[in-house]
Amino acid sequence: MNINIQSVHFKASDKLHNHVFDKVQKLFDHNEKIIRADVTLFEEGNGQPTQFCEIKLVIPGIDHIAKKGAATYEQAVSDTVDTLQKIMRRKKK
Questions:
Q1: pLDDT tens profile 30-73
Q2: Most CB atoms closer than 10 Å: which of 15, 36, 89, 93?
Q3: pLDDT band at 84 (very low <50, low <70, confident <90, very high)
Q4: Nearest to 40 by CA among 51, 30, 29
Q5: What was the pLDDT predicted at 15?
């Protein structure tokens, strides 16, 4: 299991790193073919900033990418992982 976490223009706390690791690890538990997960955390927004999480799952044959924004990084990570779980369930059928 290889999880790369990149935080753009800020230093992610250990608590945030642990949250990302715990959530993304669930994806690895459901699909043993995943080689790597690249997680990027960044902030965008005009006036009212929004935290975004983008996760790219490297799987032989096809990569899955999802990006979600929320008021907090923790919520953005959770939403992105949920989206990837739905994508992987659809592709499995």
A1: 788 899 999 999 998 776 768 999 999 999 988 999 999 999 99
A2: 36
A3: very high
A4: 51
A5: 96
* Over residues 14-36, mean pLDDT: 91
CATH number of 3-92: 3.30.160.100
- The radius of gyration of the chain's CA atoms, rounded to the nearest angstrom, is 13
Q: Which value, to the nearest 10 degrees, does the dihedral of the CA atoms of residues 86, 90, 91, 93 take?
A: 140
Q: Going edge to edge, which strands form the sheet with 3-7?
A: 3-7, 36-44, 50-59, 62-70
Q: What is the pTM of this model?
A: 0.90
Angle at 83 between CA 16 and CA 26, to 5 degrees: 55
| Distance, C-alpha 52 to centroid of its chain | 9
Angle at 29 between CA 80 and CA 15, to 5 degrees: 55
Residue 61 vs residues 22, 33, 42, 71, 91: alpha-carbon distances, Å: 25, 10, 28, 34, 12
